[in-house]
Amino acid sequence: MSTQKVAIITGGSRGIGAAISQTLAASGHAVVINYASRAAEAEALVLKIAGAGGRAIAVKGDVADPAAAEALFDAAEKAFGGVDIVVANAGVLNGSLPKIAETTADDFDRTFAINVKGVFSLMQQAAKRLRDGGRIVTLSSSVLGMNLPGYGVYAASKAAVETLSRFLAHELRGRQITVNTVAPGPVATELFFAGKSEERVAQLAKIPPLERLGQPDDIAQVVAFLASEAGGWINGQLIRANGGAV
């Protein structure tokens, strides 16, 4: 019987999610890469991981749909026998950064459907189906502590994720499952660059004392630590990985 740990990563085909998928695969995990629409990117990542000697599958699904979260676990169990780690990474941000007064109802609903309901649905499946001793890592954002205009609704959705994560850590008492949240600062991804001028990007890069944007691997390494045996005594915590920005 295989003792290989199995990890589900939502939004796992690009950006921070792709870095997490590759890092966990490189450290010996079988990975289930969830994606919403870009099948070519997801399949290319699967081939890349396999080429490096790892095990991976790609599973399409809109995490805002509870049935998709259930199907994701079904696929993981069918392919690899069970699930040990869940990384709730999928999220959306309106690149035009509308202020609260300018945010449409549709934009609000979409943000909360994916960023909150999607994580909630994943948490429900994880609470029922994760093997004892497992790890749950959710992704928030350091923008919660920065109060930048235009990020209000996005930040509110991430605040909900942080709250759900803390409660779930306590509700899973007795099963040796940890639940933690990683809150990146500005990271050089497609999601971050969308709608920003070069000047604005340069301004944001200067905010951390380390004076650079984070890289996807910076975040992936933090997630990998929390998912490892070495991170087993960290539970119910928020880790801001932002170079000291806040």
Please describe what this structure looks like.
The protein is α/β, with parallel strands linked by helices and 246 residues long. The protein has a single domain, classed as 3-Layer(aba) Sandwich (Rossmann fold), CATH 3.40.50.720. It contains eight helices and seven strands, in the order βαβαβαβαβαβαααβ. A seven-stranded parallel β-sheet has the order 3-2-1-4-5-6-7, with helices on both faces. Strand 1 (6-9), helix 1 (15-26) and strand 2 form a beta-alpha-beta unit. Helix 3 (66-80) packs parallel to helix 4. The longest helix has 25 residues, at 105-129. The chain is globular, with a radius of gyration of 17 Å.
The value of Rg in angstroms is 17 Å
CATH class descriptor: Alpha Beta
The low-pLDDT segments are none
Tally of individual helices: 8
Spatial strand sequence of the major β-sheet: 3-2-1-4-5-6-7
The CATH superfamily bears the name NAD(P)-binding Rossmann-like Domain
**What is the element string, with H for helices and E for strands?**
EHEHEHEHEHEHHHE
What's the main sheet like?
7 strands, parallel
Distance between the termini: 45 Å
In short:
The protein is an alpha/beta fold. It has one domain: Rossmann fold, CATH 3.40.50. It has eight helices and seven strands, in the order E-H-E-H-E-H-E-H-E-H-E-H-H-H-E.
Q: Keywords, please?
A:
globular, 246 residues, seven-stranded parallel sheet, alpha/beta, 44% helix
Q: Can you lay out the helices and strands and say which pair or pack?
A:
Elements: E1 6-9, H1 15-26, E2 30-35, H2 39-51, E3 55-60, H3 66-80, E4 85-88, H4 105-129, E5 135-139, H5 152-171, E6 178-184, H6 190-193, H7 198-205, H8 216-227, E7 238-241
Helix pairs in contact: 1-8, 3-4, 4-5
